[in-house]
Write a structure and sequence with these properties.
mainly alpha
């Protein structure tokens, strides 16, 4: 595992310490790694949504109304 040295602002350092004192984590390293894992997971979700939006945008526009779109969506979901 790569070893790093990082600095925290006072409020962030206090928050990190409180998480350890509350026994949420055993060390700052564990907490920072967990936060990074969460951020990576969020980024994966953002990338997935972005790809879906880009695909939808590139497929063109529709003249269907809301009711028609809803019916089409339901029929696709129901097979």
């Amino acid at each position: 595992m790569a070893r790093q040295s990082i600095s925290f602002t006072t409020p962030n350092d206090n928050w990190l310490k409180s998480q350890i004192e509350n026994k949420e984590y055993t060390s700052k390293s564990e907490l920072v790694n967990d936060l990074i894992r969460q951020a990576r997971g969020q980024q994966a979700q953002i990338d997935w949504v972005r790809a879906k939006l880009e695909k939808a945008e590139s497929s063109g526009f529709t003249n269907d109304n809301k009711k028609q779109i809803l019916e089409q969506s339901k029929s696709l979901l129901n097979g």
